[in-house]
Amino acid sequence: MIAVELRKLFRRPRTWAIIAVLNALPVLVAVLLVLTDLAPRPGEGPPFLSAVLTNGALYPLAALAIVLPLFLPIAVAVVAGDSVAGEAQAGTLRYLLARPAGRTRLLVAKLVAVLAFVLVTVVVVAAVGYLVGTTLFEAVPGAGTSVSGTSLTAEELAVRTVLAVGYVGVSMLGVAAFALFFSTLTDSPLGATMGALAVLVTSSLLFTLDAASPIAPYLPTRYWLAFVDLFRDPILWRDITRGLALQAVYVGVLLAAAWANFTTKDITS
Amino acid sequence: MSTVIATRGLAKQYGRVHAVDGIDLDVRAGDVYGFLGANGSGKTTTVRMLLGLVLPTRGEIDLLGERMPRAGRRVLPRMGALIESPAAYGHLSGRENLALLDAAGPGGARRDRRRRVAEVLDQVGLGGVGRRPVKAYSLGMRQRLGLAGALLRRPELLVLDEPTNGLDPQGISEIRELLLDLHRGGTTVFLSSHLLAEVEQLCTRVGVLDRGRLVLQDDLATLTAPTGATVVRTPTPEQVRAVLDGRVAAVDGERVVVRGGDPAEVNALLVRAGIPVTGLAADRPTLEEVVLAAATTSADRVERTP
Amino acid sequence: MASGPRAAAPRWAVVGVVVAVLAALPALVGALPVADPSVPAAELRAAVLASADVQYSGYAESAGGLALPVTDQLDSVADLFSDRTEMRVWWRGPDDHRVDVITTAGETGIHRDARGTWTWEYERATATRAATTPLALPAPPDLLPATLGRRLLSEAADAELTRIGARRIAGRDALGLRTTPAEPASAVRQVDVWVDRASGLPLQVVVLDETSEVPALDTRFLDLELGVPDAATTSFVPPPDARLRTADQAEIVLEAGRRLAPVRLPATLAGLPRRTLEGAPPGIGLYGRGVTLLAVAPVPRRLADGLRRTLGQSPDAVTDDAGTRIAAGPVGLMLLDPPDAGPYVLTGTVTLDALVEAAAQLPALGGSP
User: Fold this and answer.
1) What is the ipTM of this complex?
2) Ramachandran region of residue C348, left (φ > 0), alpha (ψ -120 to 50) or beta?
3) Which chains touch A (3 or more CB pairs under 8 A)?
4) Domains along chain C with CATH numbers
5) Which of A78, A180, B215, B287 would suit a FRET pair with A260, their CA atoms being 20 to 30 Å apart?
């Protein structure tokens, strides 16, 4: 079942189109940076972008930071929102369930497929970022400076980059869970995607609002940027562990809700 | 004969609307069961309940001897279904679609999948379609592909909802032959349709659904059994009335219905009186007459309640 | 494995229970009872004052509600008291520790060693070396609950202290100690210090002024771990591509102080006795005790004009015959600029009335310096 969902997802031209579009922005930013040599002032703009002019090996992180606030969640919401509602709209859902692909199984397989998409997307963005960074900018092989001003070996830098890629992937799981849940509520993939994005916009907005500070630790986007903490020295695990736990709670609750809804609903599409 | 589909008091209610209102289906092994009903009479909801897609409000369903939807994982792989319109992933070929569908559930072995897919594609007449994506298929081709999906695992029971939709006359006849072929091979067919002619040509048993109620369920042969009257066609109906005084039940233009189940006897009487007879047959009700007599108005009509 | 639809209610009930448990979890943890042994206030204060050598690492957050009207040169100080500041700290001792101020995409690390501090600013890739001076501007390490709590309790009299129960902070049992300044001039209503039972470290400090229920300053540990931090963590070697600088900010203050004409200031102002501070320029007069402090200095004409303009833009500023004054939480600031004499600036944690009283007691300056 999972293999079927993966095949469906990755044989679909749209999946690769989304990934391509996602990579276009960091590449464009890199080209503009090279042409103008105008890095954003440090501490402004996406994290790490100011550092790439001196070390192109950091561009994977800058690329992730560029797509993280908007593009990546949109891509994930589109794919996850389509997962069940898209099948319903196309009419294939009833054939799958009459096959029978068990409803719980189908839901799990859909989640795994979305997860795979998130992972592939994040890794591709990082990889393209690395290629762009090392070809367009001066790469300093084997070393980097941590946010705390200590020197990192190439190995440390690589490990932390991998961790950051993983963390960004996990952050996207919350989005995926929202979209998947909405996707079981409606037969319109667009509706499910928009629902998930509305949640994210609300969360980002509330995060900037002082009045909402009591609920700030529970907002799904609260710890998204915590991957920067991986590049402090020593690593600041506080927000990272909280971010992981928060995403786990959102994913758990939303999947449970999706399961409760999807396994008991009448398929009339 | 064992029962393949049995429902008891099956009902589905959407809010205050009774879509299906306590029906007792009885489909036996070897039947070609015609499930008739106007649009909106509850046919599709019933089919979806049989397949476990819609949860019944009340009642029980036994499919191939097991309780649905609980036993869906054991029962459904032994069935094939075409539910309303066919559906497939447009960017993939028909072959790939069938392989994915087969892999999505239990009871489809991986090693002979390729062979089975090729076989059913040949069976429905899509053997030469190649790698063309489904989005380039015509409506008829999609219908055939849907049917192929239903046939993929040599099902014991086929549940088909309007299977000839979108097909041209040759296609319809081809599919009819295919279904009859399968039936001869032992497959039970449950055919939901609003096309009376189609059902009349194919089915051995008929159930008629009207506004959520099963108003009729019997063998086609019984329903259309001779009524004990003879239909005479003649250019001079008034002479018939004169000769067979008191036995004429109805006159409709040149068509005269005469009581008496033996056409030979009626013919002898008329010929003796020198009345020209252009047609002569034992009177049988058509399925249409049976259905119209049993059902009320079309369910599409929404009348003002007094 | 379910393949068909089932009754919805039980499944939603499962989801509901899961959500309820998860939502209640923080409240349940917070409701865990905290032991409140009857440790006397004086004893608790002694434990705090002895805690400077307790070694720990942790994460602290300070939230300030003070909008100080200051000039651009002191921006960083103003931010410290008006914003939320997130700090990581590794404390090996009073002259071997590191405090990182964390921002979303960067940080400023202050590494203290025996002879001074290194300040690393990631956003500017700059490492700044500063020698220790007896008088320095407030810096993030001063806002750590442990450091601030010790400082605020250091001069408190036993009569000013009361015990106020216990609470859980950073997962540790903390005993409350409230200081209510005895001086009528004080603008600070109370300072609550919550002290770790085990180590004597202040875990939270809340400063309330006379008028507001919102703390003027609230700093607390969110995480705290007792134990010796790694020496490699607190030490600092500037990275190869960093710009190196030497600090001058403390110099600005000292230089300004040296240029002031020494004035004979009275021994008491607004009822507060004068005190001496090592390293402070002689032109600046410092009065008070504990959390009630008042600083007085004659200022150059140019600085006075700049300050007047700044104050003039603030709607909260009061101007009358006595001078221009403003209060930001418990901190008051007054510009005394008589037409026929040189200007003074008075500032401190005293009420505006006390500032006016103090201003009246100052000797007139002979013309503008």
Assistant:
1) 0.86
2) left
3) B, C
4) 41-246 (2.50.20.10), 260-360 (3.30.200)
5) A78
